[in-house]
Specification:
By secondary structure, this protein is α/β, with parallel strands linked by helices. The protein has two domains: 147 residues, Rossmann fold; 109 residues, Dihydrodipicolinate Reductase, domain 2 (2-Layer Sandwich), CATH 3.30.360.10. It is 33% helix and 23% strand. The strands form two sheets. Strands 2-1-3-4-5-11 form a six-stranded parallel beta sheet, with helices on both faces. A five-stranded mixed beta sheet has the order 7-8-6-9-10, covered by helices on one side. Helix 3 links the parallel strand 3 and strand 4. Helix 1 packs across helix 7, helix 3 packs parallel to helix 4 and helix 5 runs parallel beside helix 6.
Length: 270
């Protein structure tokens, strides 16, 4: 039996690609295409929105009575709503939306005590390998290595820094903690007479250029050398494939808070 999935944010850039990619994968069958109550896309066929043949499934603002998993690429407000819907219905959710505020963390943990919740700042397999690599580099390299994170996205992206850039920062902080060192302060850009760069500082920079899908680079540099690790997404399909992989993985899991590292490297959630 195919996995019956619902996509929240069906008319968004990621929602459309997930529908298109899933249509070519016999493991999945779409049973719901969700948009906000005020969306101009309500009533549009999900397949037409995705640029494929019609699926005879209209975009709506309500979930179907039955489904196996909901994939959310909507908005921070939309995530909060669909998370509660899944909690009430006892269904797992995969969250790829970014830009949530700090208060959302409490709602996330509360829901994960009842249902399986998988949240990832980036669904790409390559990015999640990069996160593991960056954590190890931060563990091994001491404060004599300056760290700078740069991310580039399309002009339409609403949040900055990107969720992936923040995840890279968190991986660096965790790597330093693993080594028993202080995490260091984070600064966003620099301007004016900032003085010499203090040891341990993590710099973050966000660029918004044209239709760039997503580029992330982390530089570790001391007075004698620089190590540069980066990832470039060539197409949103890489994120769509990762989201579908996460959706297939989470169905049947116990309640808990998971991320893509659990999907790729194993784990029990937490």
């Amino acid at each position: 039996m195919p996995i019956e999935y619902v996509i929240a944010g069906a008319g968004g850039r990621m929602g459309r690609r997930i529908v298109a990619v899933a249509a070519e994968d016999s493991r999945f069958r779409i049973v719901g295409a969700l948009e906000s109550p005020k969306s101009e896309l309500l009533g549009a066929d999900a397949g037409r929105l995705a640029g494929i043949d019609a699926l005879d499934l209209a975009a709506t603002d309500t979930v179907p009575a039955g489904f196996d998993v909901l994939i959310d690429f909507s908005s921070p407000e939309g995530t909060r709503h669909w998370l509660e819907v899944c909690r009430t219905m006892g269904r797992p959710i995969v969250i790829g939306t970014t830009g949530h505020d700090a208060a959302f963390q409490d709602q996330l943990r509360s829901a994960a005590s009842v249902i399986p919740v998988l949240r990832a700042a980036n669904m790409s397999v390559g990015v999640n390998v990069l996160l593991r690599l960056v954590r190890e580099l931060a563990r091994v390299l001491d404060e004599s290595y300056d760290i700078e994170i740069t991310e580039v996205h399309h002009r339409f992206k609403a949040d900055a820094p990107s969720g992936t850039a923040l995840a890279l920062r968190d991986a660096i902080i965790q790597g330093r903690k693993d080594a028993g060192r202080e995490p260091g302060e984070t600064v966003h850009g620099r301007h004016g007479q900032t003085g010499a760069r203090p040891p341990g500082q993590i710099g973050m920079h966000a660029l918004r250029i044209g239709d760039t899908v997503g580029e992330h680079t982390v530089n570790f540099g001391c007075l004698g050398e620089t190590i540069c690790v980066s990832h470039s997404a060539h197409s949103r399909d890489t994120f769509a494939a990762g989201a579908l992989r996460a959706a297939a993985w989470i169905v049947g899991r116990p309640a808990g808070l998971y991320d893509m590292r659990d999907v790729l490297f194993g784990g029990a959630g937490g």
